[in-house]
Amino acid sequence: MAGEQDARDEALVSQYEAYPYPERDPRDETKRLLIGSPSHLREIDYWVFGATRPRSVALRVLIAGCGTGDAAIMLGTHMARAGRAGEIVALDRSEKALSVARARAEMRGLENIRFVQGSLLEPEATGDGLFDYIDCCGVLHHLPDPDAALAGLEQVLAPGGGMGLMVYAPYGRTGVYMLQDALARLAPASEPPKERLDVARRVMRHLPATAWLRANGNFGDHLSGGDAGLYDLLLNPRDRAYDVPALFGLLDRTGLTATCLMEPSRYDPALLLPDPRLRARIEGLDRRARAALAEELAGNMATHVVYVVRRGREPVRADPMAPESVPVMREIPGAELVKRMTPDNRLRFAFGTLEVLVPLPGQARGLLPLIDGVRTVRDLAEAMESRGLSAKRFPAVWKEIFVTLEGLNRVLLAPPP
Questions:
Q1: Given CB 3.0 to 4.6 Å as the disulfide criterion, which of 199, 256, 259, 283 pairs with 308?
Q2: For residues 139 and 305, what is the distance between their CA atoms, to the nearest angstrom?
Q3: More confident residue, 319 or 219
Q4: What span, in angstroms and rounded, lies between the C-alpha atoms of 12 and 5?
């Protein structure tokens, strides 16, 4: 078994040197910033630190397996734009992937990222001490011992800190593992990456119409993402997936607990089952069972993104009803969100390939454009009172709006100065 593990790991090293993933062109940094989860700065502030950690406190970050740099570039840009003190250590064992990430950072003029070649299995070898936040996105499911790797990262997590993780999920990857098995027969991992990729491309050109991957719409980025995308999807020598119970089991074994599955409402089966009798049954389920049920029903979750902290160290979250709290749109401006509302005040929202209609109070049309990351809840109440929403009614309306859009990861709270 150890020999097999070593051979798979060697194949993985060869893969990422030949086809650094994801495939990125540094010149594109002049045109766009890729946004995602985990490691969006506003998500870290809210889901990891409860929007109570002052912005003035420097943030020490480890990107454990940075690849070609998506998370490092996004977070580094967010921190620079917000004038946030701190440093990001971007760790990866692929020099070729790091060279792409460095070039992207240079294109943006980012000076808050330090790139280190090394293994995330030995994070202490960086000599950088403890980190307030650790990103490990899309890595654990490729490792020989994910439990040991996650435990090692926990050892360099500062007190009160947290992590953002992403792992593959099985149901939304339907069709992938069948083709991986087929290609393992036709192009074993012992062959050079270039030859294996040629075989994969030939198979894709002739893939039968009945192949499950053809019916799965979750992989546009992999199938249109160049050689690196196709290789990572179908030829990766080690690829495991975690359903919700398995993910919670991984966290339990490492002494970690989830503060948020992303997006929280995606894991609420009540959104998928409007029948009152079914919803009554859902109410009797605990958080984990509800999340597992949502995954089983939706069928399209190809990944799980989760923010975690040490068990028993969950952050005290700022109160969204406090007059001095400052709501902030996670990314999309409130006015743009309003445009996605139907005439009967339901918000069209997509969980990947699944679109749901989420009811909101009609007053959301006037309130959401006012959320600018500066106005307090008190300011919002006063502005809405001038538009006919009484001070007496405002708390109930605001609570419904916030709880709903917090669950969609669209409205959060800003941390104090």
A1: 256
A2: 12
A3: 319
A4: 10
Tokens of 23: 């495939």
d(CA 101, CA 113): 10
Looking at residue 320, what DSSP letter applies? T
Q: Could you tell me which residues are beta bridge partners of residue 58?
A: none
Judging by beta carbons within 10 Å of its beta carbon (0-12, 13-18, 19+), is residue 317 exposed, middle or buried? Answer: middle
Report which of 295, 168, 314 is spatially closest to residue 255, judged by C-alpha positions: 314
- The answer to whether the pTM exceeds 0.90 is yes
* Residue 2: band (very low, low, confident or very high) from pLDDT cuts 50, 70, 90: very low
Separation between Cα atoms, residue 67 and residue 115, nearest integer Å = 11
408 CB-near residues (< 8 Å, 6+ apart): 263, 264, 265, 347, 349, 358
Cα distances from 262 to residues 23, 24, 43, 236, 351, in angstroms, run 24, 25, 10, 25, 10
Cβ–Cβ < 8 Å for 256, 310: yes
Please name the amino acid found at residue 95: E
- What are 351's strand-pairing partners? 354
Q: How far apart are CA 310 and CA 400, in angstroms?
A: 30
Q: Which of 327, 373, 365, 322 is nearest to 343 (CA)?
A: 365
Using CA atoms, how far residue 197 sits from 112, 142, 363, in Å, is 36, 19, 54
Measured CA to CA, the distance from residue 183 to residue 168 in angstroms comes to 19
As assigned by CATH, the class of the 33-168+242-310 domain is: alpha beta
Cα(365)–Cα(341) distance, integer angstroms:
8
Token duo for residue 18: 């030949």
Please check whether residue 304 is in contact with residue 247, taking contact to mean a CB–CB distance below 8 angstroms.
yes
Reduce the DSSP state of residue 102 to 3 states and report it: helix
Instruction: With cut-offs at 50, 70 and 90, classify the pLDDT of residue 98.
Output: very high
pLDDT band of 41, cuts 50, 70, 90: very high
Q: Give CA–CA dist 284/282, Å, rounded.
A: 5
206 pLDDT more than 90? yes
**Domain ranges in the chain?**
33-168+242-310, 327-413
Contact assessment for residue 265 and residue 408, using Cβ atoms and an 8 Å cutoff: yes
Residue 299 burial (CB count, 10 A): 12
